[in-house]
Amino acid sequence: MSKKEKTYTYDQVAGILMAISLAMLWLASTINMERQIERLQEDAVEQEQYYECFIDSLYQQIDYMKQTFDSIPIGSPMDTLVIRDKYGIRKHPVFGVWQMHSGIDLIDTYRDTVYATASGIVRFSGWNYGYGRCIEIEHAFTFTTKYAHLHRIFVKKGANVIKGQPIGMMGATGDVTGQHLHYEISHGGETIDPLPYINRTTLNVNEIVSAIIRVESSNNDSAYNANEDAVGCLQIRQTMVDDVNRILKRQGKDKRYTYTDRWDRVMSIEMFNIFCEYYGLETAEEIARCWNGGPRGIDKPATVRYWNKVQDHLDS
């Protein structure tokens, strides 16, 4: 006797098919969700790598800017500051004639140590006629410094020196009436009065530049979206480029900057250094507010708010 086959009603068949369909939908949804999770994980890894690269780039820019600011001759070449003769026209102490004194004369204890006031390359080291034993160092932005009448010289021509490095000992060589250091600063091939650079308050450049970059990259997408070279750059505005060119024109210099130069790392720092020098900016607040609003807008409320943001990063 044959076994009776089991039969299914239409509703039972429909229910089985519905269960199979739901199972397949659940399986497809699970697979799709797993793929989405994988894509999200991949995107998260890419984002993490991007921000790591971006942060590394900012740190590199901070180090580069600090090195650049260290190449500007600011501060005293000696531990103590006693000025015997200032910059300007004077009667030569040896020859008795009135002539230009192209530097300042500093006196201190016998054979005191002389330090480089900025990082740079030694372009001259040796005997220089009336200057006696002499050192000349080339720095950034066409600055050079000269240290004359030395008793001893510690560095040779072509050597790289860093800010604050001992380079010699004060002496009385050359055309002198007594032991002292003759110190000169030249900019663009012309001597300038070193005293404002000696007396200028030295800023913690690493902190102020780092704080400004953090503010700019938080509030201004162009700080890192403009192009590859602009990553971590401080934001020079077009009006500031125009002002810098006017300053250069007043000073009788031929150099001019273009709007595209503001996206170059070196050019942006170079232009703002001209600003700091021309307008006598000495404090972190002055630099931050001038950076935000320019010299004519430095007292506006917006620059005060900008300084508060920078100050928050300085204090953090």
| Strand count | 12
Distance between the termini: 93 Å
- Which class best fits the helix and strand makeup? alpha+beta
Give the radius of gyration: 33 Å
Low-confidence stretches: 220-233
Q: Tell me about the largest β-sheet.
A: 10 strands, antiparallel
Estimate percent helicity. 40-55%
Characteristic terms for this protein:
316 residues; alpha+beta; ten-stranded antiparallel beta sheet; two-stranded antiparallel sheet; 8 helices; 12 strands; 19% strand; elongated
What do you see in this structure?
The structure is a single chain. This protein has 316 residues and is α+β, with helices and mostly antiparallel strands. It has 8 helices and 12 strands. The protein has helices spanning 10-69, 195-199, 205-219, 222-225, 238-250, 265-279, 284-293, 301-315; strands at 83-85, 88-91, 98-101, 104-106, 113-115, 120-127, 133-138, 143-153, 160-161, 166-170, 181-187, 190-192. The strands form 2 sheets. Strands 1, 4, 5, 6, 7, 8, 9, 10, 11 and 12 form a 10-stranded antiparallel sheet that branches. Strands 2-3 form a two-stranded antiparallel ribbon. Strand 7 (133-138) and strand 8 form a beta hairpin. Helix 1 packs antiparallel against helix 3 (205-219), helix 3 crosses helix 8 and helix 5 (238-250) crosses helix 6 (265-279). The longest helix is centred in the N-terminal third of the chain and has 60 residues, at 10-69. The radius of gyration is 33 Å and the shape is elongated. It starts with 9 loop residues before the first helix and ends with a helix. Mean pLDDT is 78; it is low at 220-233.
